[in-house]
Backbone:
């Protein structure tokens, strides 16, 4: 709790696959003694990210009913009320927005609760794909709104980008949000007190309610076990309409593995936890452009 007696709230946003969960996990692991409540909004009906959040002293709540910023008074408000009535107070609340959400709308909702103190909106920006997606007529406004609502921009994937790509992206970001500090994701705030001060960016761009309907989710249960290599090959071969894919699969060498596809980059990691509650893959595309047959074919040998 802060000296005002209110619980600090941090909102983490950024487009699908920008690296929100990985960054959040690194930060949570650097705060081993803090009781942090984490609210995770996955756009799909199955919350893969919640199972990927590192175990902490606090609590992780999955918000799976579509885009939380589009439902004022919905899941997010209910979850906040539940957290605030918890007998043992939390040191902080972190809300991880879905990749299509407007973090500014979520921050406004959090700011409305008198028991909470909005500390900041951090938005992750994928250095490999943001410049081209900003030009995309169907995605550009979502990315712009996310960038404009940030108090801090965190550039991710700079290690796999060219220096020129990164400096051009920095110029674009500066044009969209000239006063917003832009740092690389190697940075972590020191403890909870190191969080940035918020509120500077809140009244900038805002996506209309219902914008989440522009995206659609495919979900499947893979029936087959394959080698890790073969899973990677199949996921890399998916068409570009698949903006994001994540979930769990079975492999010959590791048993359960978590898989991620962000843009064209695919990763697979052995899953050390208990068997995932749902053996599922979730993919997000623009509505009407989901390659369903290709995705369905992933599920069978
Ligand atoms: Zn929304």
Residues:
């Amino acid at each position: 709790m802060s000296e005002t007696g209110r619980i600090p709230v941090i909102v983490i946003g950024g487009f699908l696959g920008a690296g929100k969960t990985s960054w959040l996990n690194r930060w949570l692991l650097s705060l081993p003694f803090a009781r942090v409540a984490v609210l995770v909004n996955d756009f799909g009906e199955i919350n893969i990210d919640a199972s990927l959040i590192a175990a902490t002293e606090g609590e992780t709540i999955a918000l799976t009913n579509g885009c939380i910023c589009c439902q004022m008074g919905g899941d997010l408000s209910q979850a906040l009320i539940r957290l605030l009535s918890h007998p043992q107070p939390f040191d902080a609340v972190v809300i991880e927005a879905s990749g299509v959400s407007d973090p500014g709308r979520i921050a406004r909702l959090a700011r409305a609760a008198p028991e909470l103190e909005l500390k900041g909106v951090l938005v992750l920006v994928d250095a490999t794909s943001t410049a081209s997606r900003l030009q995309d007529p169907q995605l550009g406004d979502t990315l712009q709104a996310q960038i404009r609502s940030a108090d801090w921009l965190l550039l991710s994937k700079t290690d796999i980008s060219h220096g020129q790509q990164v400096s051009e992206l920095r110029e674009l970001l500066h044009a969209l949000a000239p006063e917003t500090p832009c740092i690389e994701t190697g940075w972590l705030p020191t403890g909870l007190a190191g969080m940035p001060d918020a509120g500077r960016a809140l009244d900038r761009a805002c996506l209309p309610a219902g914008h989440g309907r522009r995206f659609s989710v495919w979900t499947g249960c893979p029936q087959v076990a394959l080698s890790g290599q073969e899973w990677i090959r199949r996921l890399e071969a998916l068409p570009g309409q698949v903006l994001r894919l994540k979930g769990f699969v079975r492999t010959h060498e590791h048993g359960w593995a978590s898989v991620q596809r962000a843009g064209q980059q695919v990763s697979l990691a052995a899953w050390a936890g208990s068997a995932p509650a749902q053996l599922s893959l979730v993919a997000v595309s623009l509505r009407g452009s989901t390659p369903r047959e290709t995705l369905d074919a992933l599920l069978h040998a």
